[in-house]
Amino acid sequence: MNSLTEYSQWFNPEFLLQYGGISLLIVIVFAETGLFFCFFFPGDSLLFTAGLLCNTQYLPYSFPILLLSVFLAAIAGTTTGYFSGLYAGKWLQRQPDTWLYRREYIEIARDYYTKYGGVAFVIGRFLPIVRTFIPILCGILNVEFRKFMFWNIIGCLCWVPVMISAGHFLVAFFPGIKDHLGSVVLFLVIITAIPVTITFMKERKKGEGK
Prior knowledge:
9 helices, about 0% strand, globular
């Protein structure tokens, strides 16, 4: 039981930031936004918690430095995802479904991109799974790199400041919220997971109907 508890801690944003600080934050943001096997990392809740812990012993950096660091990590991550889709997309699409990867993830990203076009980068930034796989899909579809980078930057400019600012200014107005951080993060995870769950179920029904 103790080992299971210790393992689950690595999915706890507060623990991750207290353990690894800004270095681990940058690594996770990079991985979750660009590496298909890291889609399960807690991106939204991690950024929100980083805003809460900004200028503390765990993240002793100013608000602008924190924003810039995470923004650059997100840009680098999605750019990596684009090139991985560009050069390894066909291989990825041929891979069998496993507990770590399902082809539905690509289809979920495809649905969002088909429906919203470039704006899917902005919407998708706030959605787990979609955030990871839309850059990969753009590589698979060989989307023009300049167009990709434009929407990539716009998406990051929306996602990073919104999520970090939400935590940063919320704790400024309600200092006691730090005592209920676990509940707040859990609520955030549930809210962001709802749209993806709905899309995933639609995609599964579509596949069963073929």
